[in-house]
Amino acid sequence: MLQWRLLRLSLITMCLLCPLTSAQLDRQELVALAKIVRTMGATLNSSVDPCESTTLDISDSKPGLDQNKVLCNCHPNSSTCHITILYSFLLSLSSLSLLRLVTQKIVLKMYSLPGTLPPQLVDLPYLEELDLTRNYLEGTLPKEWATMKFLRSISLAANRITGEIPREWGSFTNLTSLSLEANRLSGNIPAELGNLVSLTMLILSSNKFVGNLPEKLAAMKNLTDFRISGNNFSGSIPQFIGNWTRLKRL
């Protein structure tokens, strides 16, 4: 049985080009946010000027509790603000859960969103962290996300994502954390994943991956947390794992 829930969002934005008094949120980014939320199975409504105590409502929300704000934090000599921070509350009939607030981050954790992963995230290019853990999101991993050069952490754990890890994701050279556990992902681990030498955490547990771990993963020497149980990998544990001297959890 679905519970009534309120998703409260506050977007703290950073500006780039003109006086503080005339700075406005980039309209394209606001449109992109609406598309992203819609793709994940909810609805976003906003007032005309998102920088003046506006409200953002995501359905379904409990009547009378939809008080959400967009905050514009713009630097002097700026005219355009860009979405960098979003924080969320989940309020249900039985619980109140405060989700973490960190700079340049999207957290939509445990909202039972039924849609698909939104390729439109590329239209929010300043994002550093994405957490969509424990929803009902389906579809495949968007290869388009690989162009988001500021992303440092991705958590898509406990959804219904299918398909393979895109080879394009080997371009996430600034990524330090990637969690894809408890989905329905399959196929081989792409060798390109070995390009993610900044990773400290890689969690692929409880999927349907097959084959051997590619030798190129040997370059991931910064890993401290590496979990791959609950898959259908073949062969023995690669010797290169013994060279991961920082590894604390396997």
Automatic annotation (TrEMBL):
Keywords: Kinase, Leucine-rich repeat, Receptor, Repeat, Signal, Transferase. It holds the Pfam family LRR_1. Residues 1-23 form the signal peptide. InterPro entries: Leu-rich_rpt, LRR_dom_sf, LRR_Rcpt-Like_S/T_Kinase. SUPFAM superfamilies: L domain-like. It is a single-pass type I membrane protein. Transmembrane segments: none annotated. It is found in: Membrane. Coiled coil: none annotated. Its main location: membrane. GO terms for cellular component: membrane. GO terms for molecular function: kinase activity. This is Putative LRR receptor-like serine/threonine-protein kinase.
